[in-house]
Specification:
Blueprint lengths: L4 H12 L2 H18 L2 H32 L4 H10 L11 H30 L1
Helix pairs in contact: 1-3, 1-5, 2-3, 2-5, 3-5
Amino acid sequence: MNTTPATDSLITSRLLVTARYTAVFNVLLFALSAQRGGAWSAVQLVLAAALLYYHIRIEFDRRVFQDFADGRYTPETFDQTLRQTGLRRVSDDPSMPQRVAGALALWRKSLYLTAAQSAVFLIQIL
């Protein structure tokens, strides 16, 4: 069964919005880790910086996928704008499944970093 690009965009947007919950958890872990201090706090700082980058990217992607689903602009128009502003190199335009796969890869990486952050915090408290 094939889905439409609008459906793919809407479902992807809905999934990416869940990153907000992990972002709150990440901030909490970072704050608790900073209170404990020590060398592991430096590791937490690096993880927090990486997670901040991922959460910004995920939120941007979420908004773009929502815009695709709402018909505000097309993926082709989006790509053209990115090329004109210098934010994307001249290359082939990715298909919707490639876009979804890229966004989900970012989302999964943020979950892996959250797991690493949790493990570091557990090491700190034990």
